[in-house]
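Reviewer 2 asked us to include a model.

Predict the structure of this chain.
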Amino acid sequence: MDDDVECTLVERRVLSLAWENPFLTHLYCTFQTKENLFFVMEYLNGGDLMFHIQTCHKFDLHRATFYAAEIVCGLQFLHSKGIIYRWGHLDNVLLDSDGHIKIADFGMCKENMQDDLQTSTFCGTPDYIAPEILLGQKYNSSVDWWSFGVLLYEMLIGQSPFHGRDEEELFQSIRTDSPVYPSWLTKMAKDILVKLFVREPEERLGVKGSIRQHGFFSSMDWSALEQRQVAPPFRPTLTSPSDCSNFDKEFINEKPKLSCADRTLINSVDQTMFRNFSFVNPGMTRIAAR
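Predicted model (C-alpha cells):
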C-alpha cells in the first residue's frame, strides 16, 4: 500500500540521521532483495520502559528525570532536523545495556517541518495524541511535547493522565479533562506536567519557553548528559550480550521469519521508489577505514 511504502521510506531516512544522536536507535545499514527490505540495527537488550514500569509500577523521581532529560535531547535533535516524531509512548523508548535511553520506531515521523510549517495528518497512539490533532487542527512539533507530558506523567505516577471506557471517551478526556496530580508529587514535577498539558499549542512548554530551563531539570548537567557522561540510575540485568530477558515472553517466543511476499502485489508496486533505499551508516565506513 502507498502509505506503507511511504512509512518505510520515512523510517529509512530518519534512521539515516539517527546515528548523529546518542539517544536515537542507530541503524548500521539497509539493503534489499527482490522481495524484502531489511534494516540492520543495533541490538538494544535493556528492555523498553513499558516492560520496566510494569515491574515497579512507577519510577522514582531521579530515574524519571534522567529518562525524561535524555528523551528531551532526542526529541530536540529530531525537531532541529525538521522532523516531528508523533509516535511517543513507553514501548518506543528502549534501554541499552548501560541504562541509557534510545528512542525507536520512526515510521510515523513527519519530515520537512522547519520553521512555521504545519501538517494535519491524524496519527499517533490514542493515549498520547495531542488535543489539536483530535480537533482536526493543523499542528507542528507541539504534539511531541504533549506526548512527552503523557509519558512523563506515566513514569512519575504509574498510570495514564486521561481515561475512557473506549476510544471516544478517551479522546473526550484528552480534549477536556484536567489530569489528577497526587499530593505527593513534587511542586516542580506538577508544574512541568501542567505546562506540558496546556491545550493551546503555542503556549505549551517546549514550544513556549525552554524545557531544559524548567525547575524540574534544575539538577541536570545538560552538557554532560548529551555526552552520555551522566551515570544512569538503573542498569538492566544482563547475563550476556545476547541476553533477551528484559523483553516480554510474548515477543521472545515468536519465531523469526521473513514477511511473506505477494508476487502480484510486488509486481504492482513501482519498484523505482526503492531505488535509494540501500544505505550504509557513515560511522561504519569510518570504523572500517581505520
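The first strand starts at residue 27 and ends at 32. The radius of gyration is 20 Å. We have added this to the supplementary material.
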